[in-house]
Amino acid sequence: MTIVLGIETSCDETGVGLVRDGVLLGQALASSMEEHVRFGGVVPEIAARAHVYAIVPTIQAALDDAGLTLHDVGAIAVTTGPGLATALHVGVAAAKAIAAATGLPLYGVHHLAGHAAADTLDHGPLPERSIGLIVSGGHTSLLHVRDLTRTPIEHLSDTLDDAAGEAFDKVARLLGLPYPGGPVIDRVAAGGDPTAVRFPRPLTGRTDSRLGFSFSGLKTAVARYVERTPDLDVADTAASFQEAVADVLTSKALLACADQRVDTLVIVGGVAANSRVRSLAQERCDAAGIELRVPRMSLCTDNGAMIAAIGDLLVRDGAKPSSLDVTVHPTIE
Ligand code: KG4
Ligand code: ZN
Q1: For a surface tag, which of 16, 24, 68, 100 has the fewest beta carbons within 10 Å of its beta carbon?
Q2: Same domain, 190 and 285
Q3: Does residue 189 contact residue 242 with C-beta atoms inside 8 Å?
Q4: Which atom of ligand 1 approaches the CA of 12 most closely?
Q5: 231 lies in which domain range?
Q6: Are residues 284 and 152 in the same domain?
């Protein structure tokens, strides 16, 4: 059985994972997140430079984690897009260099397909068709996932403005809570009343954008509420905001399942850690007879294991490797 080395550098995480026959053998991650905090978002040039420093040590750390050397590896997989162009180039250059030096086959991989594949490392093969909800600081997408190696991911919807995680981060700032806001809001909301404030549920109800997301209006609604409420209850506000996000995300994910007649929902991304998103998704999936799959947290956020997971599926499927002139696709759907 071939061991696949997966490399991910589409944003601020340098991720490397090793997978053989659907089993995660080891992984390592370096993040430049702290370098971006003072800019309030990921700065592509800083991310790319951090990848340059981190890529070789992270590959070595993943090999060490698995107790392997590069000689044990049988194929290389790398994210080619979507993502930040300069950041993607670092991973692709490293993958090509290893492939050129060793003669190993190289596979260019779609980042969002990788997110969906991450769950297979925890819960086994995906059914023939599933819906993927990818919710992080950078993505809010609904995907129709079919055979991950043969059929391109079908993008059902995206956010028109902020990503869900970004909304958590911005609302945390409005409430005087630290970055990253998602985990803090989750914690603070546990002591609040989610029905205290009825915040809007953007793009739900009768709308052209049945599956589309929008979070900037919700953020503005929270900002207005904070401005006009002198004795603000932070816990109630956080809980009510979180309830609105969880309601919108899960109702649209369930709509997508119904539209596509699919009975498996996979949720990944940093926001998949949110306790209310998880509990409401579980409630609604149970009511609709849909299986909910959420992988462990380290596989939800950007990582190299998910890219190795797709590479492993490609190898086992006998797919043709990419050529050595494979390049980045920052904006592919
Ligand atoms: O997938 P991720 O780690 O990184 C990228 O976006 O690339 O996602 C990070 C996002 C941040 O916006 C963070 O606030 C959010 O996920 N997040 C959460 C929770 N944990 C992390 N949002 C809501 N509730 C959480 N428990
Ligand atoms: Zn991602």
Answers
A1: 100
A2: yes
A3: yes
A4: 7
A5: 128-295
A6: yes
